[in-house]
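Let's practice the habit of predicting before peeking. Look at the sequence and jot down your guess about where helices and strands might fall. Then scroll down.
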Amino acid sequence: MNYNSQKASGYTKFRQKMLWQLIIMAVISFSVIVAFYMMVWKGKVGNLLVKFFQRFLHMTQEEAFTTYHYVFRYNFGLFFLGAALIVFFLLLFIFLHRFTRYFDIINRGIDELVSEQDEFIQLVPEMAAIEEKLNTVRKTLADRAYRAQEAEQRKNDLIMYLAHDIRTPLTSVIGYLSLLDEAPDMPLEQRAKYVHITLEKAYRLENLVNEFFEITRYNSQQIKLEKQVVDLYYMLVQMADEFYPVLAPKGNTIAVQADENLTVYGDPTQLARVFNNILKNAVAYSNPHSEISISAGEWNHQVVIAFRNQGTTIPSEELSTIFEKFYRLDKARASNTGGAGLGLAIAKEIITMHEGTITAKSKDGITAFTVSLPVMN
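Done guessing? Here is the structure:
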C-alpha cells in the first residue's frame, strides 16, 4: 500500500471514530431529553414537586398543585429548552475534550520528532497517516543532519590538510629566500634556479590560500540566476581557447564538437562557471598528452553537453559522492591536483537551479561528465 492510500485509510478511521462519537452523543442527548420530557409530562416529576411544596413550604395540596401548574406546566417549554441546552453543552464539552485529546497526541508526537531520540513515533491507530508523516519527516531530518555533519567533518578535515600542506611550500619559500639573502654573491645561474623554485612554491602557497577563501565564500554565497539566450557553441570554443595555457605544460588538448547554432536558455556567467569547474577537474586528472573532448547537441528535448577525458578510472563508490561539497578524490591529497572540493558541488547546484541534471561516469580509463539542460521553448 502506497503512502497516499495509507493516508486516506488513516484519515478514514479518524473520521469514522469521530462520527461514531457524535452519533453516540446525539443518541444520549435525545434519550436524556425524552426521559426528562416523559417524566415531566406524565406527572412523575410533578407529583414530587407537589409533595415538596406541601412538606417544605407548608402548602395545602390544592395550593401546591396550583403552584406547580402555573409555574412549571405553563412554562414547560422554557424548562424543556433549558434542560436541552444543559445536556447539549455538557455533551459538547465532553466531545471537545475527546477531540482535543488528539491535539495532545500530535503535540507529543512533535515533541518526539524534535528530540534527538531515534525511537519510532507511535500515535493512536486512527491517526496512522499523521504517524507515518511524522516518522517520514524524522527520517528526512536525520538524513539531512547526517549529511550536514558529514560535510562539516570533510570541511574540517580539508582545512586541517590545507593548513598542513601550507607549511611545506612556506618552509621552502623561507629557506630559499634565506639562502639568497645570506649569499649576495651567489652565481647567477644558481640564483636563477633558487628564484624559480621559490616562485613555484609561492604559486602553490597562493593556490592553497585561495582554497581557504573558496571554502569561506561557499558558506556565505547565494547564487542568483539571470537567464538569457546563450550561444553555447561560442562559449565552449572560447573556454577551450582560454584553457590552452593550463593544458600546454602536460601536452593536453581540447576538441569541441557542437552545432555552431546551438543555444541554451540560462545564466551565461553561471553556466560558464559550471563548464570551467568541470574542465578544471578534467585537466587535473587527465593523462599527459591526451585529448579532452567536449560534445554538445540536442537529444530528447534536452541540450546535452558531455566532457570526456582519459585518466585513472574513478571508483564507483567515489563517483556517488563526487558532487558533494568539500569532497576530493584521494589522489588529490598526494598531488597538486584538486581544489577545496567545491567545484563540482557548485556545478551541481547551478545546474539544478537551471532545472537540469549533471552526472559522472568512469570506466576503462574514460571519465565523462554529462550536463543536461532543458531546450529553450
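How did you do? Residues 3-115 form one domain.
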